[in-house]
Amino acid sequence: MSLAIAGMGWVTPLGNGVDSVWERLLQGDEASATTISEQFADRVYSVFRVPESALKGISHPRLRRASAISRFATAAGLHALESAGLKLESQNAERIALIFAISNGGVTYTKRFYHEIVGTGAQAASPLLFPETVFNAPASHLAAILGVTGATYTLVGDGAVGLAAITMAEELMANEALDYCLVVGTEEIDWLLCDAYRRWRLLRMAPPIEPFNKQNRGMILSEGAGAIVLARDGFATIERAHPGGHFRRRAEAEKILKRILCDLGQMEVDFVISSANGTFVDQAESQALQEIVPNALVYTVKPALGESVGAAGLWQIILAAQALHSEEVPPVLHVDRSVRLRLSFSRTPIPSARRAIVLSCGLNQQAAGLRLAIQ
Amino acid sequence: MAQADRRERANNPARVAVTAAGVVSPLGFGLAETLESLRSARDCVTPVMRFSVTQCRSKTAGQVSDLRLLASHAQIPRSGRLHRASHMMIQALQELVTQQPEFEPELTVVGTTSGGMSYGERYYRSLSGAGDMRHAPTWIANYPAQKPVIDAQTVFGISAPCHVIANACASGTNAVGHAFECVRSGRYQRVLAGGYDALAEMVFVGFDSLQASTPEKCRPFDRHRSGMVLGEGAAVLALENLDLARERGALVLAEVIGYGISTDNFHITQPEPSGIGARQAMERALESAHISAATVDYINAHGTATIFNDATEGKAISALFNGVPVSSTKSMMGHSLGAAGAIEAVVCLLALQHQFLPANINFTAPDDEVDLNIVANEARPAAVSMALSNSFGFGGTNASLLMRKLEA
After folding, report:
1. Domain that includes residue B242, residue range
2. How close A246 gets to chain B, by Cα (Å)?
3. A–B: how many Cβ contacts below 8 A?
């Protein structure tokens, strides 16, 4: 069964709004890195943050104490519904499902909550903070703001979780009782996450992210949200969502990516939105792409926007849809021109492009893909 | 074409069999021990020793023995590094695989609320207190919510993609329910479903800070109920297309026939007081199964023993069902959050298979505000053909699952 994209919303370190972020990417812009520190540690990390201005106008009583992740998600979700021309009323509130893709959830509030327990003891634990530490807090805020009374799901995973959410949306939309599915991927940054990824040798201390480089120099974390409204009709069709699978070791990632590309590449594909981010992912994707779809143009947005983990899959889908729609692919930044891939080194027109693959290899053993098309 | 295909599938939904199950919880390791604990209405709640609870109101939880858990998996490579949640998932999956060695899922759907949270706690404590960080990479690697699922699948050579649902306390029922819908729609033939959660200090203190947990016994639906007791565990169920399961001669333990989900949007931690969210989930499960409320023989309630949950759930049940026996088995093992729905699906499975009603223990007096037929304090034999299991969670997420006994 194929689903169509009827609307999209995008909150990124380059601002919000699909058209404005897209235009900046086409121009070769990249987000400015800021630093993030922690009171009990000397180390400082570079991150790509969402500017305050991107959340202007987003207010609701449910968001008063909500974490950044919930605000990003709400902004992207509302934009997606607006761009789909969809207004939720009580009579159609049951006919829309809400699926969230997240990785670490409200990590800032989780840290604050646990910090009080560690520092002062259990009696200092805040009953106001605790609910915001629960993985489905962002989804429940958006469901309440929109008045969704039907299915609401939060999926947790790595960078591939956004595509898993699309697979789940396909399964839910098999039921004719649903007309729409709003899928939101969202992530917020915290120093703790940077530190964890650094200890795992996946983080670079300062930009740039250099995709497909022979040396995996690491990625820079970013935050934000991406949202798409899935319907039975729309401007772009998700022809197939591939649930992928998991790999036990990093060295096995290439094998599963090849399987995904083989399955999705059965029809002619014009370009691939890769998840290359300066880590082991790049080598695995590069090998798989060279072998299975050597003629496809390849683009990764991570040097420009950073690695947004839970939001990353939705960002990739938005990019694929925008590229198909506008018949252009932005330039891949900070890439070595000797890379043996057909990369989009500059703003590249793709006038006859009809199909794209979104490939996502997560940092925590999950991989998935999907194929998008326009008429 | 797609629409015609969708309609064809919708008009001819596949029947969904449970062909194997595995469980580990405070009630025991495996189906046999769980059955024995349920039949004897055993109180499996014990004092918490894993972390300090001196400043908490509540001091007890339903807990799984580490000694037994780790001893069972000593042969697994790097067993000592795995999170307890991974060990629980491995334990549950081992039992399932022993029953159905040839079960090869195309998809795995598992619920959780906290993943490897206690490793996150260790990491933060060591980091903020300038402690020993030598094990930090292990803590980080085993923290993600999908890791216990991948660990368990890896041990048994399963490579299915996994979807980890984190819908708070409804996660386990959502996972089994979504897996049911995947098979029923015909998109999948075999799906592994379940839930897991391991006790963690942060979560324990969190519920305590909300004054949702009790310093006393867990007394669901009782007039003197004073809150929940936390628990932990894991359970998995093999869901298959019933016709294909029968074709290959698989033993069918029960049939999943309905699933309902609703969102009530009232408050992030409290249910809508009228019980509309709970009621909608149950109504949708009944609609999905095309059966009437009168055919349900047993309800395994969410029954956390908090004032709010039991009042709203009680209202919703009594509005829909007329005197159906109800129990909350959380009274015996505590509330295992993301695992609860999957464990309680296994409890329903056992009730259907062995024809008995599991008990709601620590019950002293009925709540005048809630008109329910509580299976008080002792399990009892009964003809059980149809069982409903409820799970409700933070964020106003509600889920109900319907299972029935399948005659040979």
Report:
1. 2-404
2. 6
3. 202
